[in-house]
Design a protein that fits this description.
mainly alpha
Length: 183
């Protein structure tokens, strides 16, 4: 079938609007100091039930847990970096060593700072060559910025080169490499 019927198109659009509303509600719950992770996860499960089998809703429990860790990391009243580290470790225990988990670890490492930033970020790179192209794109597009923020420009450039190999026709990446060459 080459064309969708108008009813299918309307339903797909409605599903998309509902999915965005659920995602927004979940993110508000994550940020609300009076709510937190458990209510956000309950909302996620409601959304997954309501939108079961729909392509419009792709948020996962791991997404919610790691987003919450990011909020907690910047909020000393919720436990700050120490609590965020526990949440990221819990997500890794539950979902494994995912690319999203590694990105959350990058944020923690950058926030902690110190002498071991380079070695800790470098350790996160281990095994990335064996991951899917999508995961590698996501990973390299994040880690180079953490190196850059830590004034590790040679490492940032190396990561951008890896990213450029995955997307050789991406002018933005090429421009960033060019800009880094002059720093």
């Amino acid at each position: 079938m080459l064309f969708r019927s108008a009813a299918n198109t309307d339903q797909t659009a409605a599903d998309s609007v509902i999915a965005k509303a659920w995602a927004g509600t979940i993110l508000v719950a994550i940020r609300d100091p009076q709510q937190g992770l458990d209510p956000a996860l309950k909302m996620l499960h409601q959304a997954q039930t309501e939108l079961s089998g729909k392509d419009a809703f792709r948020m996962t429990e791991e997404n919610v847990m790691l987003a919450y860790a990011g909020v907690v990391m910047n909020d000393p009243d919720r436990g700050g970096l120490a609590e965020a580290a526990k949440l990221v470790a819990g997500a890794q225990q539950k979902f494994g060593d995912t690319t999203l988990n590694r990105i959350a670890k990058m944020r923690l490492i950058s926030a902690l700072g110190g002498d071991q930033v380079k070695s800790r970020l470098k350790k996160l790179e281990e095994g990335m060559a064996d991951r899917s192209t999508t995961d590698r794109l996501l990973f390299w597009s994040n880690i180079w910025m953490h190196y850059y923020k830590a004034n590790l420009h040679d490492d940032a450039r190396r990561c951008l080169k890896d990213l450029a190999q995955l997307q050789p026709n991406n002018l933005r990446i090429t421009t960033m490499l060019f800009d880094l060459a002059y720093e």
